[in-house]
Design goal:
Helix content: 10-25%
Shape: globular
Catalytic activity: ATP = 3',5'-cyclic AMP + diphosphate
Radius of gyration: 42 Å
Number of strands: 70
EC number: 4.6.1.1
Protein name: Adenylate cyclase
Oligomer: single chain
Family: Belongs to the adenylyl cyclase class-3 family.
GO molecular function: adenylate cyclase activity; metal ion binding
């Protein structure tokens, strides 16, 4: 639906007897009158009356569905066919006029002189004399017509009109619409003008010209009338009856004219009037016609609806559309409802195709708007059943309405009137808001059907209970709003801006309802009028008629359901734009615009054109694309002057022979239709045709193109053409790509052909004769064919500038390639070339060469002349210190200087070959290079002094080689280097010279063997100097560690471990890297951090990406191994942002990532069986737009209220940055052996099998896909020639895209697959990858690296890059069975003797420890890591340094003693923190329990026990809960990277497992033990084994798989744990600092210490925090702060006399301070804050106490008057006086 918000326009109540009744716009300066004419039938009134009363709503629906409704804001004119123009002829104008517009009039239009003064609409206020004149002439009729207007049952209708020429007069007629108000209201507006006192009209049925046809029509109508029901207010007229127009009726403002006109109080008068004989309604008023801007209206002349007349109306025989599939023709009787029949619905009786509205048109998808409604929105049983709809008022209050699906807008408004207690609904209209679009509904349109259609198009199904879903807030899909109609005036600034140009008037997108009054005064100047994006704007007839020089009108994007008839009153129009509306019919009188040359009707709902359309003989450009034409519109072929015809994106399957009549046609677009077979030979008769587009059809033969004489451009992509023979001499451009072409044969020489695209065909060879026939070709594309060799004649194409032949089977290049002096672009990647000819150095114009993925072993040697010249330049540069130049200093001109490849080549791609180190010897002479890619070759070392010559190099790719070091000194010379990719090599360290590359923005060193000290500056590289880095990737370096450093950068003073110094950083990859520093950025909208591991049980995970052309983050991914805490569930997601603000991170993709897991978890928890998982996925995707677009909708309506659980990213969504943005989403969910895939957009997933096969798990939602295009078209959108939705969006489905609703949807394509042993891996990649790599190639590329998913992902990204991808890339690889889970692996650390007795035992250590058991061997493989830390240790050291030295010794002694007893390995200590490894989870938990209990009973220094942090805390039974140092502990189970430290010789551990264990310990508070989910799972597994052994279910040996020693040890540890008691308390998921995925955390306590949890339980439940300061929970401090703020607020109010009593600061600051208190505030910060709050409270209470005491002194009994109390200054002055008096008294005493 492509329309913008309409300015609120007035609707009126349908008049009960008039054929046309409406309220229209009012200029803001004057009251108006409405002139209403009523006609009545004197036949069958009694019979029809009963039927009408019984079938009111039915007939209303019946007539409206197939007849043009004149009461519509789309139609702008009411005809007065019975009124004749007697004004003087306009032919008296002077033809010799030479004024301003003399040369600007349309052809054939006489000169129109300027007016002597501006046109000013004449509005009269309460013209009593005129009123009396009118009343005296039509007194009786006046009261009767007023009775009609006061019908209490009338419903609102919209403005419409029609223009019907009199059968006796060819002059134009016009009229305007009038108002009719609702029941009982007296607020009638009226307009007056000068009348001719002799105005009168009589009419009768015209005799039919063809009696036989009339007789047939009479028979048909009688048959239809027996079925069709009529409206209470409709009047049926027989063809043989005489129809007399009713008298003139004045619709008065009864409040102001109460003494003149009385309003009927009942409906009896209405019935009486409807039964009056027609002869009593003869009017004596003569030929006067009011200006249309005055909203005067009259009914359509009935005689013109009768048989024998040229036009006829149509009606449906069934309201529910179940029994009728076509229009029912009318005959001798025409049924006229309360809404007058418009010319837009009057068909030509001889040429109207009755089948064009058949149900076949609507068989697939609902058409939401227009005069013809969808027949298949719901099941037949649902059409009569009641549905729920929520209707809002403008203040966002709402009511729910239960009514049938067929309820019309008028009927719904009548119901809403009672619900909202409106006095009248005449001034209200119903609008539907969808995203950023608003459409005002016509009275006949059906809101419930629209709601259901939108829900279906949005992905909802009957399973979602569509009948009842309306009770929910569906604002994110559609919102129905009852709006009060008002006329919007221009602001002063708008008026000033617009008044500068009255020739080209642009008032688009101003939310207007009518033409502003300022333009009425300058109508003679207006030549161009742009009213686009003003939905339902009304163009008054008199304004259009006054614009005598108007030649251009833009009425696009206005949501019109009916043709704006008043446009037909501008016959001088040459350009008319009506695109992006909902027009489904074109009036037959459209041909009155005979001067039209340019017409746009694209993106509407038109399926047929009237025959008269062919009379537009001057039409040259016609666009009717994106409509519903199934049959070629024949009237077009009569437009003999047509030059440009666009019929794309329709349903045409046949071209008639009459198309050959278009002899002047130069451009013909038939793209995306259903044409098949051969193009007809008669197309050759289009002798002027120059451009033909037949893409995306099913055409198999195009031989006719050879005989179209002047054809220059032909697009025939993606058809079924297998061969063609061409002899088009004029052809310049030919696109035949994506066709199964096997034969190339040109008969004649194609002298004019410059561009030829034959890619993705089946061509096996290029005949030499073919090359000879295209001598002047400039661009030749032969990609993805089966070429083995190239003819030498190919290189005789001296004008060739671009040659692309990638993905063929070429083995050699002819040496004659050097002759292509004009060649600039050469792409030969993915062939079988073994060598390149030496003559390639002769390509002096070549700027880009791509020979990736060949079999090259060397690069051709540079010519001696080139070597000599460049060597000389290099020597000179070395002497002078200048940069190497590509030119010599001999003074030769530029043409001589650029004599070889060295001077021109800027891009060289040699990736994926077999090049060795010596290739750099030749490459180094290509000194103009800016991009060099030698990835995935056999490079071991870069020779020195080679790349240093490439001083212009900005992008250098060295990935996928065997490099072990880098030439630092050479890299130092590459000052322009912006990108450096070194991933997938064998680098151990990075040279410090990289720090001198200050322009470096992208650095990838992933999947190497890095292991160096980042603080070892200046010997090794540190990032601190590369301030411009935006992309930094270390992922895959499993031994690389970024640990806390105490070494400062001498220049910045920052720690060397800090990544916070990189302010421009957007992507940081740390997968598999050990990260123990906290100086790293948190995840944010514009910062992407990856810290997960790549190896999991049964799965391997790898990810790689690039920023591409964006400088900000837009792609994100998510991997959860144990989804929902279940070992058998895995979740993998990818989010690829589209559009969005270019200056910031992509917010929609970030929000989508944040909300999906919770939504999907909630849906899975609600299902009853796995059969409903697919539906759960669908609902999870639908909830995207419910949340995201719901927020944007609320912000658009200024009704957004931040919720506590709403994330920061969601709250920051805004219409400026995010309305056009959205993202593609792909999700892989695996449960057991079943894989579920769901996606929207173009991020595709591929399941790869070990036999080389693949299975596509996703569906690409491309707008050019036929199914997607049908849905887009049904929702009101269109697809451009570039294949973009609404000309801007490359995908048809996605999250967000608020401004593209409802054309986009987030309904996913869901696939279910069973995983088998043959399935190897899944590739999930963004669009850019699949654009350059086929599915089969992707599998082949990563096959060798499938055991290393990180390297595989990086490799696939790199291949896409050197195949041509330039935009952002994201690749995720998930492998199956990467690590076979062995249940016995955890017992491998238990041997016969696991204690160490080697020389590495420390000699001379603690003698007490030597008495204990020896330290165990360091565990490897799966193990438990424990991190510990003393709470508040920094504060204690600062306060009590001496006691803390003693306390630390006690602490360390307890830790190490229990470590020897339990059997753990001390990895290392940092300060007072321990890192300990255990071979089993039971040993780790037992050690933690024993340490915690021993710490409580230790002999601590008394100074420590007296502190708040270490004081004794006991329970009611005097059991000690806290005492002494409080230690936090964290346990995690996993498999870290194990490697001995080269200095200490002790085992060290690296990787994400270490990171997570460290972060888990940070979650715990003092005295707590926090354990991860993996650890808890292992404990539960061992507990089950333990219980089975105790219950004799299985033996110890069987339970522990034969490892009896391990079993005995673990059983002993479990028994010890049972004795202590083990209590687990889940505290939910916690976001761990620096890590991507949250971790479910559980606290473990012994029975003795479990009361510790109760201290934190309340805070755990409320704030998800376990933080305590001393014994005071954080929430207590937070509450005390709130008290202090309120006290200060009270004091401020008293001090200011009650003027500044506001709590806004408290509200606004609470969120920020609360977040900091629970996250970034350290304990010392919390103590400082507490002291600060306490001081503030004391200050406030002191002030209040002082005021109270002074009040008592004054005799006010301590009362403080808030409004009249003295200020604090005055208070102090009083105290000063009192103190002085006291002092004086004291002295006297």
């Amino acid at each position: 639906m492509s329309f913008l918000r309409r300015d609120k326009s007035r609707l009126s109540v349908r008049d009960t007897t008039s054929t046309s009744s409406n309220t229209s716009d009012q200029p803001p300066v004057s009251p108006h009158t409405n002139l209403s004419f009523f006609h009545h039938d004197n036949d069958n009134n009694d019979n029809n009356s009963n039927d009408n009363n019984n079938n009111n709503s039915n007939n209303m629906t019946t007539l409206n569905e197939h007849s043009h409704d004149p009461d519509s804001p789309r139609s702008s004119v009411i005809a007065l066919p019975q009124l004749l123009h007697n004004s003087p002829s306009s032919n008296n104008l002077k033809e010799n006029y030479r004024g301003f517009h003399a040369n600007k009039r349309p052809k054939g239009i006489a000169n129109i002189p300027p007016l002597t003064q501006p046109i000013k609409p004449r509005f009269k206020r309460k013209s009593n004399s005129l009123l009396n004149k009118l009343i005296s002439s039509t007194k009786k009729d006046d009261s009767e017509s007023t009775s009609l207007n006061s019908n209490p049952n009338s419903a609102p209708s919209s403005r419409s009109g029609s223009i019907i020429p009199s059968s006796r007069d060819e002059k134009r007629k016009s009229a305007s619409s009038a108002s009719s108000n609702s029941s009982g209201t007296k607020h009638h507006k009226f307009r007056f003008s000068s009348f001719d006192s002799n105005l009168s009209s009589t009419s009768s049925a015209s005799p039919p010209k063809d009696k036989s046809s009339v007789k047939d029509k009479m028979i048909k109508t009688k048959k239809s009338n027996s079925v069709a029901s009529t409206d209470t207010n409709s009047i049926n007229s027989n063809a043989t009856s005489t129809v007399v127009m009713p008298p003139l009726s004045i619709d008065l403002n009864l409040d102001e004219m109460h003494d003149i006109v009385k309003t009927p109080t009942d409906t009896e008068n209405i019935n009486k009037i409807s039964k009056l004989p027609s002869k009593t309604h003869t009017s004596n008023v003569k030929n006067w016609q009011a200006p249309d801007s005055w909203d005067v209206k009259t009914p359509l002349k009935v005689e013109e609806l009768l048989p024998g007349h040229k036009h006829r109306t149509t009606s449906s025989t069934s309201v529910d559309h179940q029994t009728s599939s076509s229009l029912t023709t009318t005959s001798t009787s025409a049924s006229i409802s309360g809404e007058s029949t418009s010319v837009a619905n009057i068909k030509d009786s001889e040429h109207f195709d009755e089948n064009h509205l058949s149900e076949e048109r609507f068989s697939k998808l609902p058409v939401l708007y227009g005069t013809h409604h969808n027949h298949h929105i719901a099941n037949p049983s649902d059409t009569k059943a009641s549905h729920i709809i929520r209707v809002f008022k403008e203040d966002n209050t709402f009511t729910t309405v239960l009514c049938p699906l067929e309820t019309t807008t008028s009927e719904l408004l009548a119901i809403v009137q009672k619900k909202f207690f409106f006095e009248s609904i005449s001034n209200f209209q119903l609008s539907v808001c969808i995203g950023n679009c608003v459409k005002v509904l016509e009275s006949f349109e059906k809101p419930l059907k629209i709601q259901m259609g939108l829900l279906l198009l949005s992905g909802y199904t009957e399973d979602d209970k569509l009948r009842m879903i309306g009770r929910e807030d569906l604002s994110f899909v559609c919102k129905f709003v009852v709006e009060n109609v008002f006329l919007r005036s221009l602001t002063h600034d708008e008026e000033v801006a617009l008044s500068k140009n009255y020739v080209d008037v642009n008032i688009s997108s101003l939310n207007l309802k009518n033409i502003p009054i300022i333009f009425h005064q300058h109508t003679y100047e207006i030549e161009k009028l742009n009213v686009a994006n003003n939905p339902s704007i009304y163009l008054p007839l008199d304004f259009i008629q006054s614009c005598t020089n108007l030649a251009y009108i833009d009425f696009s994007h206005n949501g019109c359901s009916k043709f704006p008839i008043n446009l037909l009153e501008a016959p001088q129009l040459t350009h008319l734009n009506l695109e992006m509306n909902f027009l489904d019919e074109i009036p037959s009188k459209f041909s009155s615009l005979s001067n039209l040359t340019n017409l746009k009707l694209n993106s509407n709902q038109i399926s047929v054109l009237p025959k008269s359309f062919g009379n537009l003989k001057n039409l040259k450009i016609l666009n009717i694309s994106s409509n519903y034409f199934k049959k070629y519109p024949e009237p077009i072929n009569n437009l003999t002057n047509l030059i440009d015809l666009d019929l794309s994106y329709n349903d045409l399957s046949f071209l008639p022979e009459s198309i050959s009549n278009l002899q002047n046609l130069q451009k013909l677009n038939l793209c995306t239709n259903e044409l098949s077979g051969s193009l007809p030979l008669y197309l050759s008769k289009l002798i002027s045709l120059k451009r033909l587009d037949i893409r995306y059809n099913y055409i198999s033969n195009v031989d006719v193109l050879a005989i179209i004489p002047n054809l220059e451009v032909a697009y025939a992509s993606k058809n079924r053409i297998s061969a063609f023979s061409d002899q088009m001499k004029s052809l310049r451009l030919l696109h035949f790509d994506r066709n199964p072409i096997t034969e190339l044969k040109f008969i004649t020489t194609m002298e004019m052909l410059t561009v030829l695209d034959l890619s993705k065909a089946k061509i096996t060879g290029i005949p030499r004769e073919f090359i000879e026939k295209i001598p002047n070709i400039e661009k030749l594309v032969l990609d993805n064919n089966h070429l083995v060799t190239l003819p030498s004649e190919l290189f005789k194409l001296t004008k060739l500038s671009s040659l692309s032949i990638y993905s063929n089977n070429l083995q050699t290049l002819p040496s004659s390639i050097g002759a292509l002096k004009h060649l600039k672009y050469l792409d030969l990647h993915s062939n079988n070339l073994k060598t390149l000819p030496d003559q390639i150095w002769d390509l002096s114009g070549l700027s880009s060469l791509n020979v990736a993925s060949n079999n090259l072993t060397s690069f051709p040697k540079a010519p001696y002349a080139v070597m000599k010249r460049l060597s000389s330049s290099a020597a000179n540069a070395a002497t002078s210190g200048a940069v190497v130049s590509t030119t010599t200093s001999t003074g030769t001109d530029s043409s001589e200087q650029k004599s070889s490849l060295a001077d021109s080549l800027m891009t060289l791609i040699l990736a994926d070959n077999r090049l060795g180190d010596d290739c750099f010897d030749e490459i180094s002479f290509l000194v103009s290079l800016k991009l060099l890619n030698v990835s995935y070759n056999d490079l071991i070392e870069i020779p020195p002094n080679t790349i240093s010559r490439l001083t212009r190099l900005s992008d250098l790719y060295l990935s996928g080689n065997e490099l072990t070091n880098l030439p630092g000194e050479d890299l130092e010379h590459l000052k322009s280097l912006r990108l450096l990719y070194l991933n997938n090599n064998k680098l151990v360290s990075l040279p410090a010279e990289l720090s001198k590359l200050i322009n470096l923005q992208h650095l990838d060193v992933g999947s190497n063997q890095l292991k160096y000290n980042i603080s070892n500056w200046p010997y090794d590289w540190n990032w601190s100097w590369n301030k411009n880095l935006k992309y930094l990737n270390f992922s895959g370096n499993k031994r690389f560690e970024i640990k806390q450093s105490h070494v400062k950068n001498p220049e910045t003073g920052e720690d060397f471990d800090s990544l916070l110094v990189l302010k421009q950083l957007k992507v940081l990859g740390l997968i598999d890297v050990t990260l123990t520093t906290a100086n790293v950025q948190e995840q944010a909208v514009d910062f992407r951090l990856r810290t997960t591991g790549s190896e999991f049980d049964n799965y391997g995970y790898g990810v790689s990406d690039t920023l591409g052309l964006r400088d900000h983050v837009s792609s994100r991914d998510l991997f959860v191994q144990k989804f929902r805490g279940n070992e058998n569930e895995v979740l993998l997601c990818a989010f690829d942002g589209k559009n969005g603000s270019p200056n910031q991170g992509h917010r929609i993709s970030a929000v989508a990532k944040n909300i999906f897991v919770d939504n999907f978890t909630r849906e899975l928890n609600e299902i009853k069986s796995d059969d409903e998982i697919e539906n759960a996925l669908r609902k999870s995707f639908l909830s995207f737009n419910k949340e995201i677009n719901g927020i944007l909708t609320a912000k658009k309506n200024n009704s957004f209220t931040p919720m506590p659980k709403l994330s920061k990213e969601s709250s920051e969504l805004n219409l400026v940055d995010d309305a056009n943005a959205g993202c593609a989403v792909s999700v892989i969910y695996i449960k057991d052996k079943t894989l579920y895939s769901a996606n929207i957009g173009d991020t595709e997933a591929l399941l790869c099998r070990n036999n080389g096969d693949q299975f596509l798990l996703t569906q690409k939602h491309d707008p050019t896909n036929r199914e997607e295009f049908e849905r887009i078209r049904a929702s009101g959108g269109y697809v451009s020639g570039q294949g973009e939705l609404d000309g801007a969006l490359p995908i048809s489905r996605g999250v967000g895209f608020f401004n593209f609703l409802p054309h986009t949807t987030c309904a996913p394509s869901v696939t279910k697959v069973n995983i088998t042993a043959e399935d190897d891996l899944i590739i999930l990649a963004s669009k850019e990858v699949w654009d350059f790599i086929s599915y089969e190639s992707a599998i082949d590329i990563i096959r060798q690296d499938k055991n290393d998913p990180m390297a595989a992902a990086q490799k696939l990204r790199d291949f896409a890059t050197f195949y041509g991808a330039t935009d952002k890339i994201a690749v995720v690889v998930l492998t199956f069975g990467n690590r076979q889970k062995q249940s016995s692996s955890m017992y491998s650390n238990y041997g016969v003797d696991r204690r160490r007795r080697d020389k590495q035992q420390v000699v001379g250590g603690d003698s007490n420890l030597r008495k204990l058991e020896q330290e165990i061997e360091p565990p490897i493989g799966p193990l438990a890591l424990v991190f510990t830390d003393i709470k508040n240790s920094t504060l204690l050291w600062d306060s009590y340094p001496s006691p803390m030295r003693s306390a630390i010794k006690i602490h360390n002694s307890i830790m190490r003693r229990q470590l020897r007893i339990t059997g753990g390995y001390e990895v290392k200590t940092e300060g007072d923190a321990f890192m300990v490894a255990f071979p089993s989870p039971t040993a780790a938990l037992l050690w933690c329990f024993q340490v915690q209990q021993n710490l409580v009973t230790a002999d601590w220094p008394s100074e420590i026990l007296e502190t708040d942090q270490c004081c004794v805390v006991s329970d009611n039974d005097n059991n000690t809960i806290f005492r002494g140092l409080s230690v936090r502990m964290g346990i995690h189970w996993g498999s870290p990277v194990c490697e001995p430290d080269v200095v200490t010789g002790r085992m060290d551990y690296f990787g994400p497992m270490v990171n997570r264990a460290s972060r888990i310990s940070a979650v715990a508070d003092g005295g707590q033990i926090a354990v991860s989910l993996d650890f808890l799972d292992q404990m539960k597994s061992l507990t089950v084994k333990h219980d089975n052994i105790k219950n004799n279910v299985e033996s110890l040996i069987d339970a522990y798989q034969g490892n009896e020693n391990a079993g005995l040890t673990i059983e002993r540890e479990l028994n010890a744990i049972e004795e202590l008691g083990c209590n687990y308390y889940e505290i939910g998921e916690r976001k761990l600092k620096g890590l991507e995925t949250p971790e479910p955390i559980t606290l473990a306590f012994t029975n003795r210490l479990k009361l510790r949890f109760e201290i934190f339980q309340k805070r755990i439940d409320q704030n998800h925090s376990t933080r305590v300061v001393g014994t005071l929970p954080v929430d207590i401090i937070y509450g005390l702060r709130t008290v202090s703020l309120r006290l200060e607020n009270v004091c401020a109010a008293i001090n200011s006399g009650g003027k500044y009593a506001s709590e806004n600061f408290e509200t606004h600051s609470s969120g920020a301070i609360s977040q900091k208190m629970n996250t970034t505030f350290k304990d010392v910060d919390m103590i400082s804050l507490l002291n600060h709050i306490t001081t503030r409270v004391e200050s406030c209470t002191t002030t209040l106490f002082l005021r109270q005491q002074l009040s008592m002194v004054k005799g006010n009994e301590g009362f403080i008057d808030t409004m009249n109390s003295p200020s604090i200054g005055e208070l102090l002055d009083e105290m000063k006086v009192i103190i002085q008096a006291f002092g004086d008294i004291t002295k006297k005493l």
